[in-house]
Predict the structure.
Amino acid sequence: MKRRIKIFTAFVPIVIVLIALGFGWRSWDYDRIRNMDYETHSSPIMRQANVDFDEYLTRIRKAMTGNRLSIVNEYKIGDSMYEIIGQSDNFWLFANYINKVTIRINKVSVITTQTMQEGGEQTSQGEFLSYGGFIHAGSKAFLAIAFFGVMTVIVLSVRKESLPHIFPEAVESEDNLKKHGQCEDD
Amino acid sequence: MVNVKTIDFAAQFDRLKSMVSSDSLRMPILIFAAALILRLLFMFIMFSDIGPGHLIDLYQDPIKYVNAADYLFGRADTGQYELFLVGVGYPFLIALLTAIFGDIYWPILVVQLILSSLSCVLIYKIGELLIKNRIIAAIAGFLAAVSITSISLANAILSETLFFFLFILSLYLFFKGLGDNRWSTIIFAGIMGGLATLVRSVTMFYPVLLIVFALIYPVAKKAGERKRMLIKSAVVALIMITIPALWGLRNLEVHDTFTVSGTGVLATKTYLTGRVLISAQDRHVGKFTALRDSLYRSSLAAYEAGNYRQNQADDIEFIISTVKRYPSLFLKNYLLIVLDNATAVSGLQYLHLPRYTKFFENIDKYIHRGSNSPVVLVFSLIGFLILARKQLNISLILLLNVLYFALMSGITFGQGSRIFFPAMSTQSILAATAVLFFYDIVLIGRNFLFSRRRDQAEVP
């Protein structure tokens, strides 16, 4: 019982540290992609003119989901840029890549329909240019470290006698101890 | 009352032990047969897919070796630069076999298949010798036998298979020689190690590690035993340095530069230093290829003009100046490349078996989840921890070997698991230990559940 408590108390802080590390690493990945300079680390992917921004955005989103990217976040930067963050899996833990699409809004003109006075609509049309870039997600490295951390505790806490194929000498000496103990009892 | 758990474990152990057998030949033969069958199968599928006539035109390196071989045996006037670059070991084998069989290359593959299969047996023998556990050694041998890196390299006109065989034979004879009284074993270990360095110069610093091994190898408590081991390792180191040095002297005579092969400096310049410069300028990683090719072309022009000595000196100067200018960036990129190579998965099979591209892509996508997989590395580290509980010295020796090749791999990248392949000589033993550990853990869990159910059944 005491041994089990010891093992449990060794495990708990490790698990807590690993969970905290996971969240921290995920956060760091998202910060890295957000701060990635699209001009030097991305390539142009789509340019369109004379379309609505919403329509263009929909096309970009569709292209991302069509490439099996899960959209994580979207935000506007000032009046001339829009960014979409996606990753190659729904969960960061299983994602290989984190992608960013940066949409540069070059020109916007407001189009008013003829029936505006009768309650018509204004739409924005312009020239949009998108850049796509990616970083490798740190999830694989994190999982490797987490697995190694947990296994280290297991390796160090398992008794040698319980690993007969690796420590056969420990099993044999335990057997001898028990036999001698039995003889003495007899 | 005897512990039920202990009896169960003992029975399990006896069953596995009898499979591995006290007959010392059965397991090596099984490992050799399994390895050879897999490699032959790969070769036959490859020939049915791409044909035996395309062995040297799938990628760049084979043609370099062939050109060097032709120049070495006086069959061509060109190839001098390639011989300088790749060293003499593998071109010699190619030249010899093409002299016997003509300008066909599949006989080289046949030789390599046998050497590769023997290498798997040698891994088993090293495991048996060092950790005295036949089960782990057998698992290590079989892991090497089924390694797609090993299988695909054995089926490629590349120097890795010949190098690996010579190196691991040297390693096995070295450890055997430390323990016995025959000097022939030690001398032969040195000769094999020297020949391995002639094939790939990556082991040119390995003699230092041999001295370290002699310092930490477990000794029986006999007077002077450690001193004898150090002398033996010094002899191996000396032979291992002398043999490639002879080729270095030849290069000094012909090219006015003492080097075993020019590939080390060239790779450091084009790959590692190129990557550092891209990082320093904060340029897109896609720009690296253009820079690398430009750096390579500048060296190639100088070599073709015959300026070997000056070009090597310039390349070394270029590398040193980059290190001085960006020391932390250099170290960071070097370590990232080491990690990349240590976790890279094999990519050669795509070229050898193009018909199965989709199959390999699915494996990379769903199992490896990319072009890198840390599984084997993590298993090796776990195996190290386990073996450290059994015998710290031996586990350190096994890990240092892996570490050596990891550190040597930091000068180049982009070639999949090929660069880190020599580490398999002991990494497979460490990984095998982890595999066996997991098996025992599963048994513990199963026996725990079994004894709980039995206890519950006994309660009235």
